[in-house]
Structure prediction request, 209 residues.
Amino acid sequence: MRISGNDVLIVVDVQNDFVSGSMAIPGAQEIIMPINSAAKKFDHVVVVTDWHPKDHVSFASAHPGANERDVVQVSYGEQSVFADHCVQGTHGAELAPGLELTKAEMIFRKGYRREVDSYGAFLENDKKTVTGLGPYLKARGLERVFCAGLARYGCVMQSALGAAGEGFEVFILHDASAGDRNVEENNRIVAQAGIGWLNTFDLVGADEA
Ligand code: ZN
Prediction:
């Protein structure tokens, strides 16, 4: 598939805590090279990061008696809770070493409101608060969204679903994402949303022969 000037690569949550820190995802280190390779093929790259206040609603530590991976009730329904991660301004929230994304045109932060988590980059977990990323991309004339990062069936998938919900044509880069969970069920959800799967080597950069 040839990449054009109307395409954007969105790199989700490739931060220290998800690669080597408190919520390290198996295989995360192996996606750095494919992401760098993909980024070279795109004119437009957006970096999305988890960016939580220290007492965020998604932290088990913010709910007395709760353990990691428990589900708790919050204002918008159920929310899974995790180890403290990607706290604003900490080493864990920094982009993982080795990423070559200096060409990124925007670094987009999500999950910065204490009371609401945001797995996806387009729609927060209350399923009604939009982040504004969709209108930004549309204003830039971007039409196709290619998602990479962590976790494949977590924030990457939710970002892809959010983009599809806002009318973009969407693909997930399999080799530039990691983290398997409920694969069969999630693959059905992805397919129903019309989202395609590609690998980095399927992409031909705009300036490649
Ligand atoms: Zn988070």
